[in-house]
Amino acid sequence: MNILFLCTGNSCRSILAEATFNHLAPKGWHAMSAGSHPSGYVHPRSLALLAREGIATAGSASKSWDNLPQTPDIVVTVCANAAGETCPAYLGPVLRTHWGVEDPVHAVGTDAEIDAAFMTAYRILRARIEAFLALPLDALQHYPQKLKVELDRIGTLLPG
Predict the structure, then answer these.
(1) Which positions ≥6 away from 8 have C-beta within 8 Å?
(2) What DSSP assignment string belongs to 94-117?
(3) Which of 38, 39, 82, 159 could form a disulfide bond with 10, CB atoms 3.0-4.6 angstroms apart?
(4) Catalytic entry in 3, 7, 49, 83
């Protein structure tokens, strides 16, 4: 099963989600990330946070949704702009859900406050990914409507 985490710039939230999902996912599940208008770089604070969490960042890059290595089975938008965009036609009738997360790139303040904004985004995404991976995926992947309901519910979760 291939999951696409989609954001407009693909420099922060979708990168955090892709790396975290791949770190936690069982064999046979794979995450990708992309942007509708990729920024062309991965935010250094995202890479530093992932490294501190012990999550591999090799190969992390800002990518366009026009050049995906596989067709996703599920598209998870993590920003409001991407949620409102029409996915490329080649994606077909892919299952879509929205897990909106505030963009830490826009955080202002001290370095500690900005780092805290990145950590908040990461914790939200990780909690949602963990909830997703805790679902009975083998059963749900055969029932797209039930899976969609669960994915949408997960998109409202916040870490405890």
Answers:
(1) 35, 36, 37, 79, 81, 82, 85
(2) -EEEE-----GGG--SSHHHHHHH
(3) 38
(4) 7
Q: Of 115, 125, 130, 128, which is closest to residue 49 (Cα–Cα)? A: 115
Q: Which one from 24, 47, 87, 127 is the annotated catalytic residue?
A: 87
Q: Assess contact for 45 and 13: CB atoms under 8 A.
A: no
Q: Could you tell me the mean pLDDT of each successive run of 10 residues in the chain, 160 residues long?
A: 92 97 95 93 97 96 90 88 54 85 94 97 98 92 93 95
The pLDDT assigned to 90 comes to: 52
The answer to whether 126 and 72 have CB atoms below 8 angstroms apart is no
Active site residue 12: no
